[in-house]
Write a structure and sequence with these properties.
It is a single chain. This protein is mainly alpha-helical. It is 59% helix and 4% strand. Strands 1-2 form a two-stranded antiparallel sheet. The two termini are 13 Å apart. The mean pLDDT is 93. It binds zinc ion (ZN). Zinc ion binds next to α1 and α3. The site of zinc ion has 8 residues, from α1 and α3.
Length: 93
């Protein structure tokens, strides 16, 4: 999963009891409704719902990213926006 603080390998064991949303800064249905632990469980159980919820989140992430870029372009430049996104994305959690 793509989050504002980097890629999230939801299958990792460290999320087995993690009650936080996949991306705390995301307003999508998946992040508002389900914990990392539950998403991890769905993947481990090979439930198709895991892919649907993952897609809902990732599409929201990309839409938010593009919205931010459009707004940065309208303000006259993308440099600061891209630098800020990359800094957070590469820093991870
Ligand atoms: Zn989300």
């Amino acid at each position: 999963m793509f989050t504002r603080s980097g890629r999230l390998q939801i299958k990792a064991a460290r999320y087995a009891k993690d009650a936080r949303p996949a991306d705390p800064d995301c307003a999508c249905y998946t992040c508002r409704t389900f914990s990392r632990a539950y998403l991890r469980h769905l993947f481990a159980a090979q439930e198709l719902l895991a892919f649907r919820l993952n897609s809902i989140h990732n599409l929201t992430f990309y839409l938010d990213l593009m919205r931010g870029l459009r707004e940065a372009i309208e303000r006259g430049g993308t440099g600061a926006y891209v630098a800020g996104m990359l800094e957070r994305f590469q820093a991870g959690e």
